[in-house]
Amino acid sequence: MKLLVCILDNFYKDQVEKELREKGYRMTELASSGGFLRKGSTTFLFGADEDDLPALRESLKEACLNVEKVKQRKDQKTHRYTSFLIKSGDLSHVLANGMLPN
């Protein structure tokens, strides 16, 4: 099991959530802000098996592209999303100790 942390530009949020739920993905949504990425982002947490990761990542990309077909981006230089993959072993260490392993 892996945890995919996806920090998504709010421009795509509603459509990504809708399309991925329709495909059966379960997610947790967190409002996010801070210095890492600009304001106007939402963080989604996805739990996925190793074998499902390529399909999940492709679904994220397709959902963003579907939004762009309908709506025109105001700023073409901004990101769609940034994602991080955390192995389940690392995650249990974070939960137990409140920090990442060295």
TrEMBL record:
Signal peptide segment: none
Any matching Pfam family: CdAMP_rec
Protein name stated in the entry: Transcriptional regulator
Source species: Alkalicoccobacillus porphyridii
